[in-house]
Amino acid sequence: MKNYLIALISLLALSACQREEPAPLPEGLAGEWDLISVICFCPPATLEPGDQTWDFDLQENEITVTGEVPDNTAYVPLPGTYAFSRDMAAGTLTIYDFATSETAIDSIRFDYYFEGEELIIEDQPEVDGPQLRFVR
């Protein structure tokens, strides 16, 4: 009887546990964001707010990039307007016809999330991919 009671309590304890779902991403992506840093396997870039601004238009699915950054900064787009799509459930953002001072890419998919007041856009930073940080 004691074994049945222990098994029943264990079963109840396990069934009471729920898998934690990730919190939905806030709609805070819309509007202007100032690029403040780029971290990657490249020369580091620390920027002042306003050096380069990304304006996310969620109605038109466009990002308007204004301002220049140093030429040796990889993964930072040249000024212009870029089409994008996003998957809010997956937390991904795909930018099309992405052009940097070093290359042009048909599309690049980034993960994006918010850390406090910062917007983080990254592509596999664990293997030296870029991480771009933005503030309002």
Layout: helices, strands, pairs:
Blueprint: H1 2-16, E1 31-39, E2 45-46, E3 53-57, E4 62-66, E5 80-87, E6 92-99, E7 104-115, E8 118-122, E9 131-135
Antiparallel strand pairs: 1-2, 1-3, 1-9, 3-4, 4-5, 5-6, 6-7, 7-8, 8-9
Quick overview:
11% of the residues lie in helices and 43% in strands. The protein is built from 1 helix and 9 strands; from the N terminus they run αβββββββββ.
Explained architecture:
The protein has one domain (25-135): Lipocalin, CATH 2.40.128.280. It is 11% helix and 43% strand. The chain contains one helix and nine strands, in the order αβββββββββ. It has one helix spanning 2-16; strands spanning 31-39, 45-46, 53-57, 62-66, 80-87, 92-99, 104-115, 118-122, 131-135. An eight-stranded antiparallel beta barrel has the order 1-3-4-5-6-7-8-9. 20% of the residues are buried.
How many beta-strand segments? 9
Rg, nearest Å: 21 Å
* Morphology call: globular
Tell me the CATH topology: Lipocalin
Low-confidence stretches: 19-26
Helix content: 10-25%
Please trace the helix and strand order, writing H or E for each element: HEEEEEEEEE
Trace the largest sheet across and list its strands.
Answer: 1-3-4-5-6-7-8-9
The profile of the biggest β sheet is: 8 strands, antiparallel, barrel
> Which strand-content bin applies to the residues?
35-45%
- Domain module count: 1
Q: Span from first to last CA? A: 63 Å
**Chain-averaged pLDDT:** 79
Name of the level-1 CATH class: Mainly Beta
- Derived from helix and strand composition plus strand pairing, the structural class reads mainly beta
